[in-house]
Amino acid sequence: MPDPKHAMAHHLYAHLAPRLRIVQSEAVPHLQTNRDTYDVLYSVFGALDFTDPRQLLSTAAAALKPGGRLVFATLAHYLSGTLAQPDVVAAEVPAKSPDGQEAAMRRWVLQEHIWIKLLDEAGFIRITVDMLPAAINGPRPVDTLLVSAHRS
């Protein structure tokens, strides 16, 4: 049975670029089997929020072609307003399982300088981080970090 979120992603975004590949997979194993494959990797509050960045960033760098670009949006602070972590530490955040049961999941909400350090250590260059302020009338008042880096 197809995942409804994967189908929705295809419906919303597949028409935007004929070569866009929307992949439904665990990020690290997928990227490990696709070295030097991608021109761009893009994540919006996705794998980079919920996978240990020490593992994912080096794997993403290897999956990008030389000069390829990683772009991701991530929380600048927790939804509660608590400051982002000053070190590479995950927090347990409340979630719901597919059947609606209360659960918890690990989420990395890191300060800007930590993201820059991790990207540099993973071999990225030309790293930029822009802080996008929360929408004043939005449903969740949370600032966003928009991060971009290139594989060396």
From TrEMBL:
It holds the Pfam family Methyltransf_11. Gene3D superfamilies: Vaccinia Virus protein VP39. GO terms for biological process: methylation. InterPro entries: Methyltransf_11, SAM-dependent_MTases_sf. Transmembrane segments: none annotated. Residues 18-72 form the Methyltransferase type domain. This is Class I SAM-dependent methyltransferase. The keyword Transferase applies. Keywords: Methyltransferase, Transferase. It comes from the Bacteria. The keyword Zinc does not apply. One of its GO terms (molecular function) is S-adenosylmethionine-dependent methyltransferase activity.
